């Protein structure tokens, strides 16, 4: 079942960029975006473009592959391709906006935080997600949320983005 | 659990998968904190019955960079000196809960013997060099060093100079380069050719100098004084004159060629010290690549993805 389409997604990303700008307009120089592979990067890139329109500045963008930080070796088998992380700037004293498509259990974000701290010591890390769904297993909550859905634990929420997939939209699969 | 005992254990796809993971681990090794928590709680043992600097350190670092606990077994301080057998040593260590064993031994086949006896255990064995048989992880890092430069092995011409008969590195190198589609040439005194040379599908050059400009990669091997007496070789000085790579040889090599050596180098035997300054000499890059390659192998064996 399709929950949201391209128009709604883009509008939401625009709003999220505005929120980031309002909150951090006094320290834009410290700001950076880090997307969690794969779709977190596409969202982070769109945020970067929106922030450029608002600030005329190119906010640094990095990519995180948390495969080596999962808390269960077998879980890595779920992502057969390890693409590697790419952060070509120092995170020391930066304000990191960590971007992912969906937050569910919180384990991916926990792994991402561990990896970010291995790159350096940011001043602050804030979490932005396009979709916040319930059934968290760790006490991790996002600072910026696009859409919030209440679904059953066994339900699947899939985000498709044109940069990565052939189609675009947020879909719900009832199980 | 699979083992890595020989290059023959790996398909071409496996080799490229190891390269792919090694390149991800290279990025990890360049971070301010060059450690990932992937293998927390796992324990590996480096069981080295022969002296080693590079390989044992490289495996130890690789394990530690993956957050593994690494136990280094040293022959000189072990109960082997009291007469304990190899299998007894391993059985005792197993009781201490080890997940992987990296073994080097002067006798060919020891890693295979261990793997056979550990068949029922959930433990992998990696061959870190067995006698004059094989050294698969060295071949993988050699091939990875070449891969980073050329990105394609097809029809690359590789020359291996030295003691082909006694060199486990040469045996594994030839296997991996043939598997990846290279043309392999060897050059050495005739007494350094193995009996089974005909079956190796490589070209023998008694004198490599006239063809030096043809090669994309030249690998000089260590003269292994410990593995043979000098019945094979008239003198070290003569070897250096005929088979050593000197500064003037570099002038004949391609501009983008690589000069490699598995180490440790006998300077002024296999190589003149001057060649180390040439940017085509990538001996120290091989050492760095070795850590990334071994991280990839350990990680993938734990993942059972090889």
Overview of this structure, please?
The complex is a heterodimer of chains A (175) and B (306). Chain A has 175 residues and is an alpha/beta fold. Chain A contains three helices and eight strands. In chain A, strands 3-2-4-5-6 form a five-stranded parallel sheet. In chain A, helix 1 packs across helix 2. Chain B is globular and about 55 Å long. By secondary structure, chain B is an alpha/beta fold. Chain B has a five-stranded parallel sheet with strand order 7-6-5-8-9, covered by helices on one side. A four-stranded parallel sheet of chain B has the order 2-1-3-4, with helices on both faces. The model of chain B has no long low-confidence stretch (mean pLDDT 91). The chains are: A alpha/beta (175), B alpha/beta (306).
Topology (elements, then pairings):
The complex is a heterodimer of chains A (175) and B (306).
Chain A: E1 2-4, H1 6-24, E2 31-36, H2 39-55, E3 61-64, E4 95-103, H3 107-119, E5 124-133, E6 144-149, E7 156-160, E8 169-173
Parallel strand pairs in A: 2-3, 2-4, 4-5, 5-6
Antiparallel strand pairs in A: 1-8, 7-8
Helix pairs in contact in A: 1-2
Chain B: H1 12-29, E1 43-48, H2 54-65, E2 69-74, H3 86-94, E3 100-105, H4 110-117, E4 124-130, H5 136-150, E5 157-161, H6 168-179, E6 183-187, E7 203-204, E8 217-220, H7 236-243, H8 247-252, E9 258-260, H9 283-303
Parallel strand pairs in B: 1-2, 1-3, 3-4, 5-6, 5-8, 6-7, 8-9
Helix pairs in contact in B: 1-9, 2-9, 5-6, 5-9
């Amino acid at each position: 079942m399709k929950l949201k389409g391209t128009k709604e997604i883009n509008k939401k990303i625009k709003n999220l960029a505005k929120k980031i700008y309002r909150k951090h307009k006094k320290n834009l120089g410290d700001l950076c975006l880090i997307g969690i592979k794969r779709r977190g990067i596409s969202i982070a890139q769109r945020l970067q473009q929106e922030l450029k329109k608002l600030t005329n500045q190119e906010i640094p963008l990095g990519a995180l592959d948390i495969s080596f930080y999962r808390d269960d070796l077998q879980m890595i088998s779920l992502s057969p391709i390890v693409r590697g992380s790419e952060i070509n700037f120092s995170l020391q004293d930066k304000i990191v906006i960590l971007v992912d498509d969906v937050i569910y259990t919180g384990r991916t974000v926990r792994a991402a935080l561990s990896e970010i701290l291995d790159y350096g010591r940011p001043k602050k890390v804030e979490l932005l997600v396009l979709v916040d769904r319930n059934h968290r297993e760790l006490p991790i909550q996002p600072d910026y949320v696009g859409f919030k859905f209440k679904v059953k634990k066994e339900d699947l929420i899939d985000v498709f983005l044109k940069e990565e997939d052939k189609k675009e939209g947020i879909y719900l699969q009832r199980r | 659990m699979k083992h890595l005992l020989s290059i023959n254990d790996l398909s071409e796809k496996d080799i490229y998968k190891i390269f792919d993971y090694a390149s991800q681990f290279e990025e990890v090794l360049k971070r301010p904190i060059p450690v990932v928590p992937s293998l927390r709680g796992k324990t590996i043992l480096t069981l080295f019955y022969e002296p080693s600097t590079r390989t044992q350190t490289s495996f130890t670092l690789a394990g530690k960079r993956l957050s593994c606990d690494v136990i280094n077994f040293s022959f000189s301080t072990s109960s082997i000196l009291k007469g304990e057998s190899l299998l007894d040593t391993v059985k005792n260590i197993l009781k201490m809960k080890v997940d992987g064993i990296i073994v080097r031994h002067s006798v060919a086949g020891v890693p295979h013997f261990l793997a056979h006896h550990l068949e029922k255990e959930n433990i992998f064995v990696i061959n870190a060099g067995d006698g004059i048989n094989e050294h698969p992880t060295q071949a993988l890092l050699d091939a990875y060093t070449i891969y980073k430069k050329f990105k394609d092995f097809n029809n690359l011409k590789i020359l291996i100079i030295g003691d082909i008969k006694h060199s486990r590195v040469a045996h594994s190198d030839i296997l991996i380069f043939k598997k990846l589609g290279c043309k392999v040439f060897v050059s050495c005194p005739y007494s350094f050719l193995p009996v089974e040379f005909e079956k190796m599908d490589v070209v023998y050059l008694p004198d490599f100098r006239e063809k030096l400009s043809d090669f994309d990669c030249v690998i000089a091997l260590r003269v292994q004084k410990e593995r043979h007496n000098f019945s094979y070789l008239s003198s070290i000085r003569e070897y250096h004159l005929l088979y050593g790579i000197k500064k003037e040889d570099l002038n004949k090599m391609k501009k983008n060629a690589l000069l490699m050596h598995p180490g440790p180098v006998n300077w002024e035997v296999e190589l003149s010290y001057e060649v180390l300054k040439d940017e085509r000499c990538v001996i120290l890059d091989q050492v760095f690549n070795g850590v990334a390659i071994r991280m990839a192998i350990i990680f993938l064996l734990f993942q059972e993805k090889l």
